[in-house]
Amino acid sequence: MYAVVNSATVVGVDAALVRVEVYVSGGLPSFTIVGLPGTAVQESRERVRAALKQLGIPLAPSRIVVNLAPADVRKEGPAFDLPIALGLLAAERHIPPRALERLLAFAELALDGGLRAVRGAVSVGVLAANEGLSVMAAPANAAEAAVVPSAVALGPATLAQAVAHLRGRSQLPRVTSPAAPSVAAAELDLADVRGQAAAKRVLEIAAAGRHNVLFSGPPGAGKTMLAARLPGLLPPLSTAEAIEVGRVYSAAGRSRGPGLDLSPPFRAPHHSGSAAGVIGGGALPRPGEASLAHLGVLFLDEVSEFSRPVLEALRQPLESGTVVVSRASGAVALPARFQLIAARNPCPCGRLADVGQPADGLGGCLCSPDQLNRYRRRLSAPLLDRLDLRLSLPRLTHDELLNASPGEASAAVAVRVAAARRRMLTRQGCANAALSGPALRLHAAPDAAAEPLLRAMVSRLELSARGFDRLLRVARTVADLDAEATVGSAHIAEAGAYRSA
């Protein structure tokens, strides 16, 4: 007897359709799974046996062959427990095979017959919606899949509930996704940052155009405070963008909470992180921090303390928006279109700016020239060239520390950022940081009065072709914040000032 059940496997962040074929025949009792199953898939035999026994339908002594097609794609994880169990029941005619035709089953089985959540449910929801299939998964996974607008998700808590539904004895309700939570006001307000007017302006420009930023300065100047307040300035994600981010988190085995989270992600990995942890990878490629920051912010505090291989690996996603992990079995592309905010001290001890100024009694910088050179070489010229805005923050003065009045609130800055972003999307369909080629020349070309300044700027800053393009993108963003249709001299001058630090 033969039955087929649809399921899926997650490769990177994408779900691929898998047909679980079950064949039961006479002969010596055996239970074989073929089709490149991983260890967790092989172990599903024991989980399925126990779950079916709890259901009151123990496996009869027979020869069972389960084929996971296509057979040339590696299958990993326990998500095939449910489809294998349903396939066996259909092959033995305990449930009608026709009931499985438009179903995609995807769940781990507990030994007592309960359904457990697995990773990749949002990607599976996207696949099922595209294929016109209903998803049957554990309740938590069904809620994740339901965030896809056209997905039909069913969430039985046990194998018994799933079988009763397929037999027609009861009806499982369609799982609906909770309403998207409204994006709350920023808890970390820009008004809390004392002084640093230039840095706040840089943060506003970065938020509007999705530009990469490098803050340099002594400890306590406010670099980390500023970076942590960037998410409060960013516009909310669209529904399509939120689903894309949800796919990455689900593939990594993480959750962004109930419903569709429209807030841009913010990731801040520790500088001791490995390349696989920050960039992504592993024997079975999983998203790293760069992918978890997709369409959001990746903050690298103490960026010069990260290992050189990790920093150099960021060059590809900063340019292309994807991380390609190559293995002998093939290459996996992980989305990683993030906005990089990096912060560093001026030297290893952090007191280079205090030479000759032992105001706190600790003395100035004691780093040797070799230490300084090694520290500065951590950020290579190609990586620095990809950072649109670079600013050196001064140490706060006594007057700023004692008498500084509250600055502008994040909510007020966010209004200007949102208005500038709308101008970009209306004009060219993307943020200015993504402008390239003819579109960049068309929309960011300076007016005639600004061309002499631009030529002088290129010569003085010794800009590369990439640096020149990024200067134009920042100038275009400054013009959008000023609600100007063309890029003028003032916009070029301000963009150049933030490129020279």
Question: How is this structure best described in words?
Answer:
This protein has 3 domains: 2-175, Ribosomal Protein S5, domain 2; 190-409, 3-Layer(aba) Sandwich (Rossmann fold); 435-497, no CATH class. The protein is 38% helix and 17% strand. The protein contains 21 helices and 19 strands. The chain has helices spanning 39-42, 44-55, 81-91, 121-131, 139-145, 159-167, 197-209, 223-228, 239-251, 275-278, 289-292, 308-313, 315-320, 369-377, 381-385, 398-403, 410-428, 437-443, 451-461, 465-481, 489-497; strands at residues 2-11, 14-25, 30-34, 63-69, 103-106, 108-109, 115-116, 134-137, 152-154, 174-175, 213-216, 266-267, 280-281, 286-287, 297-300, 322-327, 330-335, 339-344, 389-392. α2 (44-55) packs across α3 (81-91), α4 (121-131) crosses α5 and α19 packs parallel to α21 (489-497). The radius of gyration is 28 Å and the shape is elongated. The termini are far apart.
Helix content: 25-40%
| Uncertain stretches of 5 or more adjacent residues | 354-362
Q: Which strands sit side by side, in order, in the main sheet?
A: 12-15-18-11-19
The proportion of strand residues reads: 15-25%
CATH class of the largest domain: Alpha Beta
Tell me the CATH architecture of the largest domain. 3-Layer(aba) Sandwich
Judged by helices, strands and strand pairing, the structural class is alpha/beta
**Count of alpha/pi helices:** 21
Quaternary organization: single chain
